[in-house]
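Quick one, T. Sequence first:
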Amino acid sequence: MAEPRYKRVLLKISGEALMSEQEFGIDPQTINRVAKQIKSVCDMGVEIAVVVGGGNIFRGVQNSAKLGMDQASADYVGMLATTMNALVLQGVIKQYDVQVRVLNAIKMDQVAEQYIRLRAIRHLEKGRVVIFAGGTGNPFFTTDTAAALRASEINAEVMLMAKNKINGVYDKDPRKHPGAKKFDYISYDDIIKKDLKVIDTAAVSLCKNNNIPVVVFDFADNRSIEKILKGETEGTLIGGEKNHAC
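Structure tokens:
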């Protein structure tokens, strides 16, 4: 097989995507599918880090208003939710005979290693999957921003944003507007100017400043990540070279 286009990638998975058709929690088939795709990346000799959201357990902004909590407190609860998802994903990935480590932005020595940049890079160099939990460790930042931050810190060559049944970036929400137009490529600036909600604005700015392209794709296709790494066109490429296959 030809050499993969990227040698080190960061995969961002939303917590909601892990629910599948459920109202909350984790769908076993979905998380096993994620684990299998991560194993396939490792088998290609590609270093992979993962950031998983926590929206399947707790939605900070929405639930803080309902419960009367301030946003900072709610965001910390959301960080704990990402840790729960990270630990579950770690356990599932291990079943596929893949070495994996959880590094947490919040100190939890009993369940995960504390995040240290050089430690994370060393794990990747040894062929281990690294799961980043706890967001950035600070309130008021989304897990999209945490993913862009970690991608920048570990010198990832691309950030892969896995969506549930949405294969790319559209000018309107395709679930509400059947005639929405899909972009094969869109610049960082146009994402911000058009106020497209597929990725957090702060995350886009971080990726632009560090020249990290972003590929938005539907991970329901079991071969989607493999296609991207082989250089096949898949989903939508944000930033990077316009004529470069994503």
